[in-house]
Amino acid sequence: MIIEKAVQVLEAKTGEPAEVGKHWFNRFMERHPKLATYRAGPLNRIRANAANPVVLRDYADTVERLFAEHKPPPRNILGTDELGDRNNVTVIETICADGTVLRPIVIFKGQYLMLGWGEDNPDDAKIAVSAKGYTDNELGVESIKFIDEQTKDREGVRFLFVDGHGSHCTLEFLDYVAEHNIIVISYPPHLTQWLQGLDVACFGPLKIFWSQEKAKWEYKMRQRVSKDTFLRVYSYARERAFTQPTICSAFRTTGIDPLRRDLLTLENASPAKVKKINGRFPLALPTPAKAIIQAQRQVREAPLQDTGMSRPAGSPSAAAPVIEPPASPLANRTPTAQLPLLRQVLVGTSAEFLITDSPLKSTSRLPPLVLQSSPKSLEPNWSILQNPANAALMSRSRLEQEVEELRAELRCAWETVKRERAIYEGANAQLVLWDTHLEELSEQLAAKETKEANPLKNLMASKTARCMTDSNFRDIKRNLKKQKEDAAKRKTEAEAERVRAAEREKWQEAEKVEHGSKQKSAIAKWEQEAKEAKRLKKKQPKRPAVTKLYPRAPTPDHLKPRKQREAIAANRREQEEQEEIDIGEAGEAGSDTENESSESE
């Protein structure tokens, strides 16, 4: 791009074709160190799909309504975001619409905070640590407290624009901002690259300046930037990046201050349009479509015959072929109903994923549609039908010539019919593939929507902007938290019930063994006594009733099922309450008796 512009400038000056040297671009970049090169990449599909008029209009309506209600000055409009580094260091920056920047929060990766990390701290940044090196729910609450500490002297309501990170949606975070007169507005998901001022205007220069200051520091000090020196080097880049014009442009470009709805439109949030397309002619059908056509032809009762006719001029006459379509068992079937009959032919083709049980992926794509049309060169000369000749006035040779011309045109029409049949055949085969693909995608979408219907996930999966300090939002969040706690409690109780059931089964098995041994010993003793009585010719002793003598022990209360334990506990509470009532009535009766005795005296 730069080389092309340079050539255009040269040609405009000289008026003649020009070109630059082989190493001109490298020398140009050395002369302008502020410039940097980046490799362009495709826009993420989720981010591209997130930009739609409904989401942007809802975001603009939310901001406009709240700004009209509270009329915040520029110094009360804040935006915050985090930026990560390869050394597992995260910096949380907060800017204001008046062009100022608050003190940052620097999160180092680690278990403990080392003293050396904060000794050289030019920006007086707040230092924290986390196991993974980036923010979490606890640090999210600490960050809002740090922002409130720096802006609490500002009169009026403060507006804070944040992304939809989970640390901004905790109940502790929302309760704190509600108590301290801060209104939090979240950007629509996957649109921060267009709506978040720090991403749009500040973080780009900051990354460039950080790379430059880091390289300058390492060249000068002959050592790498460590956690001990990070704050010093970062302060140099931060001072160059967070200037008042840059910060103001961050809010102005994103349409926040001044508020401009024309900047919050789909045109400004749409991905770049393709300027050049490499076209190609769709000459051949894809392999899956060919396989389906072959299968359809094999199951037909009367396959279509290829006569091999062309349109030669003056060719000898031939019998007119029959062009009625043959009957097929696949006729009058929907494309999806046809596929089970044709599943085996898709094995080994690029559409094999349609006949497997594995879920579809973003790479599971069908070949592009091939749209064909019959060639114009094979169209018959229909003017013969419009201007029929009078056969009565023709000679024999003229009639034979006329018949030969009609036969040639008929052969041409037959070739056209064959070509169009082949086109219809290919289109139908492609319809089978695409209809089946859509069915699979619809099933997966339905499963995803059913899964997302869970309110615990659906609240945070909103596709629009939200004012997270509204009482309704916090109430919903509080209810969801309670539901989550109840679900965890039920899970714990279910696990305890499973453990209790295992213990009960083990106890019952031990009790069964012990009970059986007692019964066997009693029977053995009786048999011994019976043998002795028989030997002495005495009366036979009575067989003992072992089930009555040694009944099974009742299951302990702590091992009984949950419903039985609850019933036992309820009965105990009723008994205790009844005992308290009886004690109270007995006390009242005793006091009445004492009063009567005292009166009689």
Report the uncertain regions: 272-283, 301-332
Q: How many helices in DSSP terms?
A: 18
Rounded mean pLDDT is 78
Overall structural domain count: 4
Number of strands: 7
> What composes the largest sheet?
7 strands, mixed
Kindly estimate the percentage of residues that lie in beta strands according to DSSP: 5-15%
Instruction: Give the overall shape, derived from the CA principal axes.
Output: flat
Helix content: 40-55%
- And the CATH topology of the largest domain? Nucleotidyltransferase, domain 5
Q: Strand order of the main beta sheet, please?
A: 4-3-2-1-5-6-7
The value of Rg in angstroms is 43 Å
Q: What is the CA-CA span between the terminal residues?
A: 120 Å
CATH architecture of the largest domain: 2-Layer Sandwich
Biased composition (Basic and acidic residues): 481-517
Biased composition (Acidic residues): 576-601
Pfam families: DDE_1
Biased composition (Low complexity): 310-321
Could you describe the 3D structure shown?
Residues 1-38 form the HTH CENPB-type domain. This is HTH CENPB-type domain-containing protein. The chain has 4 domains: 2-31, no CATH class; 51-263, Ribonuclease H-like superfamily/Ribonuclease H (Nucleotidyltransferase, domain 5), CATH 3.30.420; 287-455, no CATH class; 471-559. The model is unreliable at 272-283 and 301-332 (pLDDT under 50). Helix 5 (137-151) packs parallel to helix 6. It is built from 18 helices and 7 strands. A 7-stranded mixed beta sheet has the order 4-3-2-1-5-6-7, with helices on both faces. The radius of gyration is 43 Å and the shape is flat. It is of the alpha/beta class and 601 residues long.
